[in-house]
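User: I'm writing a short report section on ligand binding and want a predicted complex to refer to. Could you take this sequence and adenosine-5'-diphosphate and write out the structure as tokens? A short remark afterwards would be nice.
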Amino acid sequence: MMEETKTTTAFGADVFGKEAINTYLSKDTAKKLQATIDEGKPLDASIAGEVAHGIRHWAMDRGATHYTHWFLPMTGSTAEKHDAFLEIKNGEPIMQFSGKNLIVGEPDASSFPSGGLRSTFEARGYTAWDPTSPAFIKRHSNGATLCIPTAFCAYTGESLDKKTPLLRSMQALDKSLRRLMTLFGRPEGHSACTLGAEQEYFLVDKEYWKKRPDLVLTGRTLFGAPSAKGQQLEDHYFGTIPDRILSFMNDVERELWKLGIPAKTRHNEVAPAQFELAPQFEELNLATDHNMLVMDALRNVAEKHGLKCLLHEKPYAGVNGSGKHNNWSVSYGGKNLLDPGKDPNDNALFLTMLCAVIEAVDKHADLLRASVAGAGNDHRLGANEAPPAVISIYVGDQLAEVLDRIEKGRADKGKQAGTMKLGSDVLPTIPKDATDRNRTSPFAFTGNKFEFRAPGSSVCCAGPMTVLNTIVAEAVDRIAGELEAAKVAGKAKPGEHTAAFHNALQKILQASLKEHKRVVFNGNGYEADWPKEAEKRGLPNAPDTPSALAALTKKENARLFEKYGVMTKRELESRHEILLEEYAKKVRIEGACARDIASEMILPAVKSEYLETLQAFATAEKVGVFSGTAALKEALVELGSGLDQLKSGIARLDEALHDGKENTTLCAMQVLRTTIDALERKVADKRWPLPKYRDMLFLY
Ligand code: ADP
Ligand code: MG
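Assistant: Sure. The structure tokens for the complex follow:
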């Protein structure tokens, strides 16, 4: 078969999509199911039986013996509990999968974090099929499982997962957009959020990984002196991809294509041994599920290549960390609302959306920051080449000038003279490239979408995207409310607005920009002055997870999520509790792991180095050799004081762990790390018990 045919026929082969639906279901049922999917409605119970029957046959034809409801619990990973199709009826084995099994599942919820939403004696949780994300086949080396993407909630109906709030936030945004679109005289349409999630990751040889308990247990190196060569030469980014890595990437892409995931771009990233995979953007809910499968595929395929994929935000100190840039946009009636487009008549709508996003991000920077908080990302935000922890927006100079004119309410200050009209002459054509020179902003407008760069590489996109949808829903809703109050709508034909409409809109956007433009920052986010400037502007800067998560406890934020039907106060509180606890647990695990490595691996190595040096020194003295003894003595002093520091560092960490305070634990870990990284250069290479940065970063 030609490669072209092979790739296109394989694409989506393991997804119960259009083709499978038409092959395995009757015409009538196929039509009903397709309508359900297109409209995002729950499955019609009357066709559930036939759909289940069809899906089972399709799955069994592809080697599946089991099925599972696949969901996104609040741990941030995915969950599955497999059941065989096999049932014994009257002593006979049969294969069965009922409509009920397809629509709902009842996994025991007691072992998933619920943040107090469900106590163990009310352990029942329900999973419900989300038909907008198609069923797919997950393969392992000798079999396959049918996976049905589901939402997961408690028996009270409260959501226990990340998908439910995401779907609700999409509904909220849809509602606000419809309100706005009516005012703009747009015909009734379907709104859709889109997401393209760029995934960064590191690869390391599995043999090294096995010898690093820190990587095995925590996903990052807790110790390690910098390699002589790191990323100084800037020779890795977009460099030639080594053959071993390219064959790994190829296998990953093949897996993803089978799952209907449009993996598109692959390249070396900035740090050595760091890479990126970017898919073509898709509808947000699907793209979120797909990103979870991308992370799965990266991990699984790496094993087959003798590699380990590190999805941690900061596996190595001193070189770049990994992020997951969330490229987000929203369309209505098939048209991207963040695309300035060529038609000047679209400008008013584009500028309204742009101002809405600016307003949303400024008003709720704390929530966006909270949505990317986590023990791993704490090491990345504000560090090497990562966006700072202060949330600001980059719009580029051209748009900044346009916004400036809106704010001032006149066009004569700008390059283009003339009267201010939002619809027609305010916006110059924006060349796509001119808007994205900046790589340091946590939230950047990139031509026809926003790129939220603060999310860490391991995060589930649902969290940040739920927040973004909700806050934009609020801003759009507010602007629409003001337009309604101005009573200017209704007269405008699509694309052509009355002067009254323009004037009203101008005033609304002007007022919004006056209040919220402080969040626009087009400079270099890595500059030391920026945090100071940000403070002057009153922008929040939450440096670590606990301070970032505090946003989830604010009354006004609970009201926001409740107002837009995204989360109840209890649901929000539960997220706060879970995330805070997860943070504390991760820090404790890291602390205990650092202590164990230090006392069980490093300490003995330093002791034997010391002993050997001591013996050499003593022997030299005894036999009366004097050359070299000064150096030996100096080494002894260095190793000896290193040993002392090591001992006290371990004791200090032990104490911090005992006290159970995360910040003192992290400080003690840092002190211990400084001691150990210095000792790494004083102990013989053969004796050092951990693979070094130079090994792991360059030999994969
Ligand atoms: P970068 O320059 O940041 O590496 P690209 O411009 O190649 O990125 O695009 C990054 C991602 O943005 C891709 O996944 C792409 O599909 C996605 N993207 C493009 N247009 C949209 C859109 N309208 N909505 C969401 N994502 C989009
Ligand atoms: Mg990017």
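A remark for your report: The chain has a mean pLDDT of 91. Residues 194-196, 198, 278-281, 325, 327-329, 336, 448-449, 451 surround adenosine-5'-diphosphate (ligand 1) (CB under 6 Å).
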